[in-house]
Amino acid sequence: MNLFLAATIFVLLVIVLSALRNRLVHEFVGSSLLIFGSQNPGLWFYSLLFLPGTILHELSHWIVAEILQVRTGEINIFPDLGSEGGTKKLGSVATASSGPFRSFLIGIAPFLSGIFTLSLLGYFLFLGGLLWWQYALLIYATAVIGSSMLLSAEDRRTWPFIIIFVIVLIFLLNQLNLSLPPIFLAKIITVLVSLNKVLGVTVGIILVMIGILYTLRRIIEVLTHKKLTRR
């Protein structure tokens, strides 16, 4: 497998995971609307179920901000639901204004820490020889980290600047005819292939969760004689 293919698969898996995460939240919200007439109980339940991932997400922001000497404020690990139908935040860290590079590093920190954690979880999942409850715990942790490592719109606010910078850098390297050493290139491909495996497992786990929640929601619709409608 070449670097381009491995990187393309990685990007596609992250995009799919992001879409599935939104669907997962939708299923929690949908069931909550049918039972309670409000989406907030569903969001609270989702928040509590995925609390370990939220803690890792927000701590990643905070640690990198502290390392980069960007002032930090209050850390919230529980949802700020606001008004019904308003903007929902499952967690947040207050940080002072900083330049685009530091903002980018602070914003992307949860994704990098999540990828690292998923790599460790994947190692133990593929290791074999574990007890059933250990597999169950690893599957739960994989779903939690995989869902929580994704970045919010606020985390991505400096990305246009960074993307332009990276494009210019790649162009300059190409003009200088610089290339990565074969050994280093092979190592990058190996890491990407390993990450793609664990991301694939994560996608599969969340798909199963969505399937279960969708089935439960349909049962609730039958029992309550209510049905969700899109507006």
Overview of the molecule:
This protein is mainly alpha-helical. The protein contains seven helices and two strands, in the order H-H-H-E-E-H-H-H-H. The protein has helices at residues 3-36, 40-49, 51-67, 100-127, 132-148, 159-175, 182-224; strands at 72-76, 92-95. The protein has a two-stranded antiparallel sheet with strand order 1-2. Helix 3 packs across helix 4, helix 4 (100-127) runs antiparallel to helix 5 and helix 4 packs across helix 7. The model is unreliable at 83-87 (pLDDT under 50).
List the helices and strands and how they pair.
Elements: H1 3-36, H2 40-49, H3 51-67, E1 72-76, E2 92-95, H4 100-127, H5 132-148, H6 159-175, H7 182-224
Helix pairs in contact: 1-2, 1-7, 3-4, 3-5, 4-5, 4-7, 5-7
Shape: globular
Helical percentage? over 70%
The number of helical elements comes to 7
Largest sheet: 2 strands, antiparallel
Give the DSSP E fraction (strand runs of 2 or more residues): under 5%
Low-pLDDT sequence parts: 83-87
Counting DSSP E segments of at least 2 residues, the number of strands comes to 2
Average pLDDT value?
A: 83
Oligomer: single chain
Structural class: mainly alpha
Return the domain count: 1
Q: Please list the strands of the largest sheet in the order they lie side by side.
A: 1-2
The rounded distance between the terminal residues' Cα atoms is 44 Å
Radius of gyration: 20 Å
- The SSE order reads HHHEEHHHH
